[in-house]
Design a protein that fits this description.
Blueprint lengths: L18 H14 L7 H5 L5 H12 L10 H14 L3 H6 L6 H18 L21 H6 L4 H7 L25 H9 L9 H20 L3 H14 L2
This protein binds a DNA duplex through helix 3, helix 6, helix 7 and helix 8.
DNA sequence: AAGGATTCCAACCGCGGGAGG
DNA sequence: CCCTCCCGCGGTTGGAATCCT
């Protein structure tokens, strides 16, 4: 059972990427565009599996990726979208320009789910938890992969002062093909009333603005906008 | 200051689905 | 249809960074 590995692992680099590998990958994609991940490493002179290249590009090297802390607007938007979409990180990421699904998933697992728990909200169902349970560690992998001192962990679930994450070095060169990214393209095509053609970047921003506006209105407890927001979100799932 | 505990996030893994033969 | 290839997604892991005692 199971599929064969995406590529032979023999002789391939794993783990953190070096600057040289980043450069090779970036230069290759700038010259040839995204896609054909399986054959890309060989052509680019990388001893990496295609999947690894794709991941590195999507989550780190791609131009216009936002670095640094999630803003409070983004934070609220993620929570709202998660109530509507669940763990569909790529869909959620599609509504947050410059953020990657991996980043949002990590942010959710390390910050938001814990925060919701401390607020007495089930991070999965977004329902209020009736009794007053001890904050439960919901990340099961952490339970298995590291020994835990529970009481200490519970203590740590109390929100602490935010940590500042310095932006990591990333390319700043503009890249015309950025918004040819399939996911973004697909997302745009699902939105009704978005004029065809025009500047992709502007469309993306318009899209975000529209979403943000809906979000802010729901925060104002306006029931009509709440309905509007949810139906808008549901339209994205088609 | 030291070292154990915990957090965070980049990267890996396996699976599902679409496309094409 | 069935099979294979490839891509993308969500869950999980490993280890550096940070915190705590």
């Amino acid at each position: 059972m199971g599929r064969s590995p995406c590529c032979s692992k023999v002789g391939l680099h794993r783990g953190f990427w070096t600057h040289r590998e980043d450069t090779l990958l970036t230069k290759y994609i700038e010259a040839h565009g995204e896609g054909h991940w399986r054959s890309l490493p060989k052509k680019a002179g990388l001893f990496r599996c295609g999947k690894s290249c794709r991941l590195r590009w999507m989550n780190y090297l791609r131009p216009n990726i936002k670095r640094g802390n999630i803003t409070s607007d983004e934070d609220h938007l993620i929570i709202r979208l998660h109530t509507l979409l669940g763990n569909r990180w790529s869909l959620i990421a599609g509504r947050l320009p410059g953020r990657t699904d991996n980043e949002i998933k990590n942010y959710w697992n390390t910050n938001l789910s814990k925060r919701l728990m401390t607020d007495g909200t089930d991070p999965n169902t977004h329902q209020k938890i009736s009794q007053s349970p001890a904050p439960k560690e919901n990340n099961k992998n952490k339970q298995t992969h590291k020994a835990k001192n529970t009481s200490s962990t519970e203590k740590r679930l109390v929100p602490k002062k935010p940590k500042v994450h310095f932006p990591k070095p990333t390319r700043v060169t503009s890249f015309v093909n950025l918004l040819r990214n399939d996911r973004l393209t697909r997302a745009r095509t699902t939105v009704p009333n978005v004029a065809a053609g025009g500047d992709n970047h502007t469309l993306e921003n318009t899209y975000y603005e529209e979403y943000l506006q809906a979000l802010l209105n729901t925060v104002d407890q306006d029931q009509n906008y709440q309905v509007e927001f949810e139906s808008f979100a549901e339209s994205l799932l088609i």
